[in-house]
């Protein structure tokens, strides 16, 4: 069941990226890095070769090179995502044979295209996968030139945007570079939102009832600390737990019922790893 959910989310993420490519970026010649950007550039010179087909050819070629040069470091989910992206783009191109764009305004196309793409990529990354392509080229640069992966990714995408500028003009090339820069920030922002949890400290005389509710009803763990109030000089217990937003609302409503004088502090946890949340070591 877990695998079905993971691959379902990867498929959803890839579908969003494909929507962005087919209806926003490609019709406006915005080659925003990666194998997608390369495919858009090649397609402009050889229209008979669809973007989806070009992406599929490049993905297969790059995976073969990766296995030869850097070994088997790309998991099944990454291979699935890369090939699925090429396949979905190919299908959408059949649905949109006239290369119709949702908008021909370059600014709007860049903003909405990269927004939709970033959400899709974040969903894929959040499942410990990627769409391959640029990642593979970056890892090859890392192996032979000892560049950091982040810098290698930026170099690859920057080179693609230079070719975009040479092919479609400086203005479109600048939009492509703008998309490359914004995309990274947006992906990080969306991933933080997807993984956001609440870490909660509770001081209450009814800590036993609250802890039982957390364990039995919310199916979460909690930790109890002993503490002493400096102002009152009285000892008590402090509960610590981490919950998602929905669970926190349930807990807050429960605490209202059992102890209206409870003291609660809540802060955002941008990422939580461990039992009940995201695995510390995820597989690709």
From TrEMBL:
Enumerate the Gene3D superfamilies for this protein: 3.30.70.120
Q: State whether keyword Membrane applies.
A: yes
Location relative to the cell = Cell membrane
Provide the DUF2179 domain boundaries: 220-274
Q: Is Membrane given among the entry's keywords?
A: yes
Highest rank taxon of the organism: Bacteria
Indicate the transmembrane segments per the record: 7-25, 45-71, 78-95, 107-125, 145-166, 172-191
**Keywords, ordered alphabetically:** Cell membrane, Membrane, Transmembrane, Transmembrane helix
Per the record, membrane topology reads: Multi-pass membrane protein
Q: InterPro entries this protein is in?
A: DUF2179, N-reg_PII/ATP_PRibTrfase_C, UPF0750_membrane, YitT
Protein name, as recorded: YitT family protein
Say which species the protein is native to. Answer: Clostridium oceanicum
**Origin organism lineage:** Bacteria, Bacillati, Bacillota, Clostridia, Eubacteriales
């Amino acid at each position: 069941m877990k695998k079905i959910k993971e691959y379902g989310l990867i498929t959803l993420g890839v579908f969003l990226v494909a929507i962005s490519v087919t209806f926003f970026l490609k019709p406006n010649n915005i080659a925003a890095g990666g194998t997608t950007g390369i495919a858009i550039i090649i397609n402009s010179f050889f229209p008979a070769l669809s973007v989806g087909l070009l992406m599929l050819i490049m993905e297969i070629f790059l995976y073969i090179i990766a296995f030869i040069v850097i070994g088997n470091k790309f998991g099944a989910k990454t291979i699935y995502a890369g090939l699925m992206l090429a396949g979905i783009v190919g299908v959408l191109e059949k649905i949109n044979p006239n290369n119709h764009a949702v908008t021909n305004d370059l600014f709007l196309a860049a903003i909405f295209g990269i927004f939709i793409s970033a959400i899709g990529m974040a969903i894929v990354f959040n499942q410990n996968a990627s769409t391959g392509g640029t990642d593979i080229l970056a890892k090859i640069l890392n192996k032979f030139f000892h560049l950091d992966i982040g810098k290698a990714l930026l170099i690859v995408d920057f080179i693609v945007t230079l070719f975009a500028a040479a092919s479609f003009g400086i203005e479109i090339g600048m939009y492509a570079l703008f998309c490359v820069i914004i995309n990274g920030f947006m992906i990080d922002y969306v991933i933080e939102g997807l993984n956001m949890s609440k870490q909660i400290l509770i001081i209450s005389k009814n800590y036993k009832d609250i802890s039982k509710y957390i364990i039995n009803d919310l199916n979460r763990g909690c930790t109890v600390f002993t503490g002493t109030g400096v102002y009152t000089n009285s000892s008590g217990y402090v509960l610590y737990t981490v919950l998602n937003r929905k669970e926190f609302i349930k807990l807050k409503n429960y605490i209202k019922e059992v102890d209206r004088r409870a003291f609660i502090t809540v802060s955002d946890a941008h990422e939580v790893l461990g039992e009940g949340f995201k695995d510390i070591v995820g597989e690709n």
